[in-house]
Amino acid sequence: MSTLPPCPKCTSEYTYEDGVQLVCPECGHEWSADAPADAGDADKVYKDSVGNVLQDGDTVTVIKDLKVKGSSLVVKVGTKVKNIRLCDGDHDIDCKIDGIGAMKLKSEFVRKV
Ligand SMILES: [Zn+2]
């Protein structure tokens, strides 16, 4: 049984291995079998500004003043943010901040406590 992935270009299932390459006979596409077919978000690692790995429920502090989009509020440097939730996107931390409410932060602007 072949477990080769389908062609990423034309989705043909008749791909074959040629050394370290995978080759599609239908469209001629060649690609590396080592490259993950889908650099998925499943094992995305979230890191703070100094490289600590962040997890859901962590407490972090903000390392620079951050303006809250659509308001005149500012999250001051040093603000402690409890119980963060990691999510996909440009702003990858979902959280609630006292006095401000729910907002999103970038992991590069926080530091794990
Ligand atoms: Zn193909």
Automatic annotation (TrEMBL):
Protein YjdM C-terminal domain span: 47-113
InterPro entries with a match to the protein in the record: YjdM, YjdM_C, YjdM_N
Annotated ranges, domain Protein YjdM N-terminal: 3-32
SUPFAM superfamilies noted in UniProt: Prokaryotic SH3-related domain (SSF82057), Zinc beta-ribbon (SSF57783)
Gene3D superfamilies linked: 2.20.25.10, SH3 Domains (2.30.30.40)
NCBIfam families: phnA
Family note: Belongs to the YjdM family.
Name of the protein in its database record: Protein YjdM
Lineage: Bacteria, Pseudomonadati, Pseudomonadota, Betaproteobacteria, Neisseriales
